[in-house]
């Protein structure tokens, strides 16, 4: 693509001359004799380089320079003048000009100056783009959700973040536990410090201790050099211990001591080191049961569980599932260079009624696949994975001995209630009666299933009907 140079000179013949010179150098040159119009054009459509005359009646080149840079600080401006005085050059540079040339202009010199300016502009935009890319994970870290279940989570994050309290995050696989941990860190006074994460299940038991607490040089065969542990590394920030429920009992005892003393002793060292890290942990296990079964130390449990955040499974977030689906669609469509993509109503209905056992991660993968498959600007049922397409929300009982089909009793109750309302043509009062529920109790359950805020716009609601 040709680079665009805008020429501003109140003398039309100069404009024509510069245009011709620059077009010969391979640029797309446009020109105007009015600085005001130049400003308007730049506001409408940015250009790569501006070449302007200095002495113009409507507005002089210095003022134009300042005004362009006020709104488009990245555009390089080359100022051209008839009177080659040092003063004019200095004022032009002070006004933020990129270069200064005196008439009569030599085609070659103009070409060189514009080339340098254009390159400067390209590099600047590239740096800016890279900087945005680097900071993108932060914006990808937004916790999408407006259901009452997720509002409670957001509220807890906001309330606990400013304190130093240890936070235990509990939730099924793929619900976004790590995202919540990052959100706690990002909203805390330690946000400028490091966020250090380790998955306790992924690190072999014998290495976990040196990972966390560090080791001295020569502490064991592989310890060729000294290593700072993650507790010290996370000082000033947050240490996130993921899958804490998988930590071996022996390690749990060591962790407890470290948390009590707020000091670690690297393996093979006789020096203890202070650390100042806030602890956030996560697990998909029910640690209370593990405590009862003596698989998890009770004293450690109380230590890490000062505040507990329960991240709800996706199927309990009502219309959030569609919000998340379009959020992921937008992200993947942008990444793959496709235009705006939307969900067909049938696809939205399938997504809403599927049980999403793999939670947000499963939805994210399904949307990535759908974007890759989509032929038009709409995601249709055909673009969804088989299991989502063929899932029947009204199937309660196991059709085969497939453990994957097992759902919780609460989920069965939810599906049964919907089914009953559906076969009664949406008559909720009658449904409550047949189900042996108080009418208000039924409404409360429906609200809980659908998430208070979205429940009017949810397609499921349409399927169920709103008659009373
Ligand atoms: N509310 C949300 N908004 C946006 N993205 C989300 C949300 N929840 C989860 N995600 C995305 O879903 C994926 C899974 O989230 P995450 O890794 O935090 O889950 P997890 O609970 O730690 O899973 P696991 O138990 O498997 O470790 C990530 O890509 C995350 O960015
Ligand atoms: Mg995780």
Provide the fold topology.
Blueprint lengths: L3 E5 L3 H13 L3 E5 L2 H10 L4 E5 L7 H11 L5 E5 L4 H9 L4 E4 L4 H34 L7 H13 L6 E5 L5 H10 L8 E5 L5 H9 E2 L11 E2 L1 H4 L4 E5 L6 H13 L1 E2 L8 E2 L3 E6 L3 H6 L5 H7 L2 E5 L8 H16 L6 E2 L1 H9 L5 H15 L4 E2 L6 H4 L19 H15 L4 H8 L3 H12 L8 H6 L4
Helix pairs in contact: 2-3, 13-15, 18-19
Bound molecules: adenosine-5'-triphosphate and magnesium ion.
The site of magnesium ion has 3 residues, from α7.
Which structural traits does this protein have?
4 domains; binds adenosine-5'-triphosphate; five-stranded parallel sheet; 16 strands; alpha/beta; single chain; binds magnesium ion; Rossmann fold; Helicase, Ruva Protein, domain 3; 468 residues
Strand residue content: 5-15%
* Overall shape: flat
Distance between the termini: 62 Å
Low confidence ranges: 135-140, 452-468
Bound molecules: adenosine-5'-triphosphate, magnesium ion
Structural class: alpha/beta
**Total beta strand runs:** 16
Overview of this structure, please?
- With 468 residues, the chain is of the alpha/beta class.
- It folds into four domains: 4-131, Response regulator (Rossmann fold); 150-312, P-loop containing nucleotide triphosphate hydrolases (Rossmann fold, 3-Layer(aba) Sandwich), CATH 3.40.50.300; 314-391, Helicase, Ruva Protein, domain 3, CATH 1.10.8.60; 395-468.
- Helix content is 48%, strand content 13%.
- It has 20 helices and 16 strands.
- The chain has helices at residues 12-24, 35-44, 61-71, 86-94, 107-140, 148-160, 177-186, 205-213, 230-233, 249-261, 287-292, 298-304, 320-335, 345-353, 359-373, 386-389, 409-423, 428-435, 439-450, 459-464, and strands at 4-8, 28-32, 49-53, 77-81, 99-102, 167-171, 195-199, 214-215, 227-228, 238-242, 263-264, 273-274, 278-283, 307-311, 342-343, 378-379.
- A five-stranded parallel β-sheet has the order 2-1-3-4-5, with helices on both faces. A five-stranded parallel β-sheet has the order 7-10-13-6-14. Strands 8-9 form a two-stranded antiparallel ribbon.
- Strand 3 (49-53), helix 3 (61-71) and strand 4 form a beta-alpha-beta unit.
- The model is unreliable at 135-140 and 452-468 (pLDDT under 50).
- The protein binds adenosine-5'-triphosphate and magnesium ion.
